[in-house]
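Narrative of accomplishments. A recurring question from our advisory board has been how the design workflow behaves on a single, concrete structure rather than in aggregate. To address it, we present the structure tokens for one chain from the evaluation set, followed by the sequence designed for it. No filtering or post-editing was applied between the two.
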């Protein structure tokens, strides 16, 4: 396993380059890039087909930087400088535990003040270059795909908050015992929490800019499937705990790699399992006592296939909402099936058979997806 990018580089090239990046975080970033690409391509395609339309926006040009703009830029610069300079001055500590530094109050005041002044000055000079004696209003055309930068930021913010909220609900007992640690940790993220909250933020912004919710949902279906697949690569490579139940069964095929059937996740990032003899990877020196189903890699394979399927049929789907309905069904079935062999916290309510949070939500997704497909097909002429 590769808990950090440094471990990955050492495995590939044999070089020891200390970097403060964990593997999971890097793949989350790559997942956002993949989603950004897919969303953008769909927005452009739908605009070319006349389904989505550019809109006019009035802006004021020639204004100098306002006090609030200077303050916000200065505040942003202070936060970056406060953490960045401290991290550089304590680089070994930053490499070994970047999360504790980023989420703590530790920082460098001088570095913060210097970058605050630099950011504020940069904003002032940029606005001053284009300043007019009398600011003027101008009308610009905004294409739907040009909203993506704004959409991706809000999706990331609300997606992270939603993922943390749903994860803490799922592991409520642990949250009650360690509330601060769980709130400030970058680990422990629930996909469906991120999907629900991040998706809601995207729909709100899209609607404010004239994009109908069903059209925006259709745009997002393939992209979310692709982003999920890429993100799960990070889960597998880092060993973040999203693995399956113990698998002591013999391989069904001799040619199947051991790591694809039953895996102990050595050097996993969550420190689960037993110590690895002779390990020199610091705090990443544990592996599971027994091999488990490597469910993240199963999801990577399945979701890439499902993305390819959704991408291939997008030109054939005409009814608004149908694409997202199909995505909901496929996503729900995939996740429900993987939950059968995945380690997870189970709920015991009303005498029902034990079930996980993901099983419950995926069931709602399947039922909701079927309902949305029926609704879209029955009202395709009204919704267009």
């Amino acid at each position: 396993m590769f808990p950090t990018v440094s471990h990955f580089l050492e495995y590939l090239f044999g070089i020891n380059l200390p970097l403060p990046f964990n593997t999971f975080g890097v793949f989350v970033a790559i997942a956002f890039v993949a989603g950004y690409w897919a969303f953008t391509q769909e927005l452009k395609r739908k605009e070319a087909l006349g389904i989505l339309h550019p809109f006019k926006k009035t802006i004021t040009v020639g204004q100098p930087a306002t006090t609030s703009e200077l303050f916000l830029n200065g505040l942003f610069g202070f936060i970056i400088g406060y953490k960045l300079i401290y991290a550089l001055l304590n680089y070994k500590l930053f490499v070994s535990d970047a999360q504790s530094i980023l989420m703590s109050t530790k920082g460098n005041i001088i570095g913060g003040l210097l970058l605050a002044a630099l950011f504020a000055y940069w904003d002032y000079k940029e606005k001053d270059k284009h300043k007019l004696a009398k600011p003027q209003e101008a009308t610009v055309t905004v294409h739907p795909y040009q909203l993506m930068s704004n959409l991706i930021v809000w999706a990331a913010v609300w997606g992270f908050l939603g993922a943390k909220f749903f994860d803490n609900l799922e592991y409520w007992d642990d949250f009650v015992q360690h509330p601060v640690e769980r709130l400030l940790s970058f680990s422990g993220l629930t996909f469906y929490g991120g999907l629900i909250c991040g998706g809601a933020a995207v729909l709100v912004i899209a609607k404010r800019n004239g994009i109908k919710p069903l059209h925006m949902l259709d745009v997002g279906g393939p992209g979310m499937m692709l982003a999920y697949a890429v993100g799960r690569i990070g889960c597998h490579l880092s060993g973040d705990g999203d693995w399956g139940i113990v698998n002591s069964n013999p391989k069904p095929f001799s040619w199947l790699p051991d790591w694809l059937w039953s895996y102990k996740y050595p050097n996993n990032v969550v420190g689960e399992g037993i110590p690895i003899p002779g390990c020199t990877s610091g705090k990443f020196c544990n592996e599971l006592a027994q091999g488990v189903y490597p469910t993240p890699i199963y999801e990577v394979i399945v979701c890439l296939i499902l993305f390819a399927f959704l991408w291939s049929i997008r030109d054939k789907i005409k009814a608004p909402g149908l694409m997202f309905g199909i995505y909901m069904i496929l996503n729900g079935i995939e996740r429900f099936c993987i939950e059968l062999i995945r380690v997870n916290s189970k709920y015991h309510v009303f005498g029902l058979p034990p079930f996980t949070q993901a099983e419950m939500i995926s069931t709602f997704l399947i039922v909701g997806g079927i309902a949305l497909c029926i609704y879209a097909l029955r009202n395709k002429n009204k919704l267009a």
